[in-house]
Amino acid sequence: MKQLLCIISLLLWGLTGRSQDVQSCRNVSLSFFSSAPLEDIEAKTSQGVSAINLKTKAVYFKVPINTFQFRKKLMQEHFNENYLESNKYPHAEFKGKITDDVDLTKDGSYPVNVEGTLNIHGVEKSYKMNGTITVAGGKLSVTSKFKVRVADHKIKIPSLVVKNIAEVVDVTVAADYQPAK
Amino acid sequence: MLHFRTLFALLLFAPAAMAQNNLSDLFGKDSVNRQPVIATFKSTRIINGHSNETLKKGELDFRVAHRFGDIGGSAGGAKTFFGIDNSTDIRIAFEYGITDQLMIGLGRTKGSGNFSQLYELLAKFKLLQQTMDNRVPIGVTLFGNAAVTSMKSSPVESDAAHFSQFSHRLTYTGQVILARKFGDGLSLALLPTYIHRNRVGYMDMNDMFALGVGGRLRFSHRVALVVDYFLPFRDQASKDYFKTRGIEFYNPLGVGLEIETGGHVFHVNFTNSTAVLENQFIPETTTSWLQGQFRWGFNISRRFSLGR
After folding, report:
1. Which of A181, B118, B266, B302 would bridge B111 by S-S if both were Cys, CB 3.0 to 4.6 A apart?
2. Where is average pLDDT lowest: B18-22, B37-41, B80-84?
């Protein structure tokens, strides 16, 4: 009986401890930039979500494709309808892990490497990227820039518009986290 | 004791594993799907009729619509190169998005029916947009236009085109466009319509209601089949009278292919109606598919994004 109590208390401690280990953000800013000979295209959203587990260093990002805002609305329509097919594949999702040995419970600024799988347009691909995690007052904020090759995710660019859309787009991410409830 | 150890191990590790995998569970199934459904139709027109789509803020749409002569029947065949030699109606227009919901347009139409040489002013307002989560299951758009003819008044007093005052030159359309996109490939629209013509011929109707239906079936990213059909509610008495004069009214039906090439939307279509404007093709179509009186037509839309 004593053992059982011990287990239960351990378990409870484990659970409460763990929920404090997770920080989340529901307004992740994401933007991408495509630079091609004929035009530069930029789109932004601030409706991404993310969570980071400080102990396991697991990282998670998800963004609804149809929230990306373009300056030209017709482009936004083409992006959703013809390229990303957001009806079929509504989200882009990243599941990964921080590979560096950093202590995210201590305040400071840490350059980190992240490895994981990015799913765009229903196609998964492994990525290694780097970013910066800043911890202030125990709260995380993250910035990262990385490149996505559109062909890697089976996003087809018709030859008619190859000069308008870059083969590789630059993605920028910024998020401020709060302890998850 | 072994029993306890496994239990202990399980209890200890299970939550750890869970916590790692379930970062995604923090967010459940929320978000996406408040978003409006986009591209129910690719253009602001289905074929003859309007779709629920409007231009976005700052967009200028240059439109050309053309209807050729009868392919078959007495006016068609090889001698007119299956109608290509004739044009029954031509419309050239500029339309502009004032906001993402409101657009206006100014067009010049050759005209086919009672009047020719028409100038049209139109406004279209997106009242409701269907949402991905079906909280709003259909889109609702309002459309209205006024057309004025600049043609010379007919000297024959009983003619519809005899204008003893300016207001006789005016016709109007009011329309509610209800549309829904079903999944990725199919969109349907229902278009209750009201046409008012200030001046009409004897036994014709100044006010006419009509019900339109339209649809778009997508084959690929860039090609779709489009169809629209209008059922005008003309009085039996009016129909009977015109029949005695050898004129019969038909319901306009359009069938076409919609081809999108990024910026351009191109329609190649067949219609029995000769006119392009609602004000004319709904109440004044007297040509029938079954008598070879259908024609090639095209709509070209070129959209430009102006300003920011």
Report:
1. B118
2. B18-22
Chain B contact set for A71 (CB, 8 A): 305, 308
Strands, DSSP E only, in A14-107?
A: 22-35, 40-53, 58-64, 69-70, 91-98
- Determine whether the interchain pair B20/A49 forms a contact, defined as Cβ–Cβ distance below 8 Å: no
Nearest Cα to Cα of residue B191 among B227, B163, B157: B227
Domain A22-179: give its CATH code. Answer: 2.40.128.110
Pairing of strands A139-149, A168-176: antiparallel
Query: What type of residue sits at position B99?
Result: T
Q: Is B113 helix (H, G, I), strand (E, B) or coil?
A: coil
Query: In a mutagenesis test of the B interface, which of A82, A97, A140, A163 is the best target, namely the one with the most B β-carbons within 10 Å?
Result: A82
Task: Name the residue among A52, A58, A82 with its Cβ closest to that of B221.
Answer: A82
**pTM to 2 decimal places:** 0.83
Domain range annotation of chain A: 22-179
Rounded Cα gap, residues B230 and B250, in angstroms: 9
- What would the pLDDT profile of A22-31 be if each residue is shown by its tens digit? 999 999 999 9
d(CA B93, CA B88): 17
Which of A14, A47, A67 shows the shortest C-beta gap to B12?
Answer: A14
State ipTM: 0.74
